[in-house]
Amino acid sequence: MIYASILAAGLGTRMHRQDMPKQFLPLGEKPIIIHTLEQFFINTSVGRVIIVAPSEWVPYTEDLLIQYNLTNKEFAVIPGGINKPVSISLAAHYIRDTWGVNDEDVLVAHDAIRPFITQRIIDENIEAAKKYGAANTAIITNDAKFVSKDGSFLDEVLPFHQIFAEQTPQSYLLSEFLEILKKAEESGIRLFAESELPRLWINMGQTMYIVRGEYFNMKIINPYDLEVANALLRERA
Question: FRET pair for 164, CA 20 to 30 Å: which of 143, 170, 189, 218?
Fold first, then answer.
């Protein structure tokens, strides 16, 4: 079974809206999260969808899926965690506890606020997770990157061709992912203090394949991003 986990638990403080998390704000004529979800509901490989939402917005999210007729696949909306690693782990444990896990199961975790995800990226994540155990979506950056230890002076210029900017999805063979979570817990690693699952994954000796993303697979985190996203949507119409 291929599971999609849509990560929608953030409150979106950088959008400067107190009334509604950014994933529920309108993009064109539909909420951002609906644009994202539609791509997973039309994907023929994805069997079930788990949406990880703020606890107080779970009923609202369920109502949105019904309102926009996203009912052709089995889905669940569950409360999320303090950060992305915790939310992905909650989705994985929900799957294990609800349906069980076999060696073929794949979890594809994607930001709800990346509404321009493509079918190619989803499909390549699934295939890479099956083949290599895990995959992460990324693009080569257009800008040179450098390190400054004090924030004032340049210490190191990083090799341009080796630097990638992370996007999502992140995808995992579910059985291996749950095993890594178990090992992390036994080692005293707490996911609420870990900002990036891929770092934990490779530090545990696992490999992670890079799926090439798209520059338009943008993350909408502030008002400027939303303006750009609306312009991109109008251009595609």
Answer: 189
pTM of the model: 0.94
**H or E element that contains 204:** none
Residue pLDDT, tens place only, 51-88: 999 999 999 999 999 999 999 999 999 999 999 999 99
Under DSSP, the state recorded for 216 is T
Nearest to 204 by CA among 237, 220, 236, 182: 182
26 Cβ neighbours under 8 A, 6+ residues apart: 32
Cis omega (within 30 of 0) for bond into 54? no
Tokens of 32: 């951002």
Spatial contact of 163 and 151, defined as CB atoms under 8 Å apart: no
Contact 129, 171 (CB under 8 A): yes
- Torsion sign (Cα): 203, 187, 92, 10: negative
Opening angle at CA 13, ends 25 and 149, nearest 5: 135
Contact of 40 with 2, CB cutoff 8 Å: no
Residue 65 has a pLDDT of 97
**1 contacts: CB under 8 Å, gap ≥ 6:** 47, 48, 99, 102, 104, 105, 106
pLDDT in tens, 188-200: 888 887 778 999 9
Looking at domain 2-140+166-236, does it have CATH number 3.40.718.10? no
How much is the CA Rg of the chain, to the nearest whole Å?
18
191, two tokens: 């996911």
pLDDT for 237 equals: 76
